[in-house]
Amino acid sequence: RPSSQPHRRSAVSDAAAPAPAISPCGACKFLRRKCMSGCVFASHFSSDQGAAKFAAVHKVFGASNVSKLLTHVPVNRRNDAVVTICYEAQARLSDPVYGCVSTILALQHQVGSLQRELSMVQTQLMNTRIAIANALQNGRHQHL
């Protein structure tokens, strides 16, 4: 039998249920769920580009795993963690075997190559300075 009064929630149930955010974050948009206040993803995956960014994270690590991980990271370090997770997810999708390790190895190789080049240039500079000093020394002896 329908009641003439509108259905009201109790104050207890209102306090227990988190209120939905105005617009879902990118993660919740991707997962097609309501974005609740206190969503661990909301401040890191914007509504605009966050869904695409989160798609890679979800595919590689899974939303539940990332959510659990972020709850264990101190709030002041979460942004760094999310940036790192997003980078690793993109790297894993590009290179499923090595992920970001292939980038690290390439950069280490480049550093080694540049260090060898720098050493050669420093040697050339030192030899040029010695040659100039010798030329100046010989020029002084000729004028005496």
Q: Mind explaining what this structure looks like?
A:
The protein has two domains: 18-99, no CATH class; 100-144. Helix content is 65%, strand content 0%. It has helices at residues 11-16, 26-31, 50-61, 63-72, 78-94, 101-143. Helix 3 crosses helix 4 (63-72) and helix 3 crosses helix 5 (78-94). The longest helix is centred in the C-terminal third of the chain and has 43 residues, at 101-143. The termini are far apart.
Task: Explain the layout of strands and helices.
Layout: H1 11-16, H2 26-31, H3 50-61, H4 63-72, H5 78-94, H6 101-143
Shape: elongated
Main sheet summary: none
- Separate helix tally: 6
What is the H-and-E element order? HHHHHH
Q: What is the helical fraction, as a range of percent?
A: 55-70%
| Percent range for β-strand residues | under 5%
- Report the strand count: 0
Distance between the amino and carboxyl termini = 123 Å
Chain-averaged pLDDT: 85
- Which residue ranges are poorly predicted, with pLDDT under 50 across at least 5 consecutive positions? 1-16
Characterize the quaternary organization of these chains: single chain
Radius of gyration: 31 Å
**Structural class assignment:** mainly alpha
Number of domains: 2
Q: Which features would summarize this protein structure in a list?
A:
mainly alpha, 6 helices, 144 residues, 2 domains, disordered N terminus
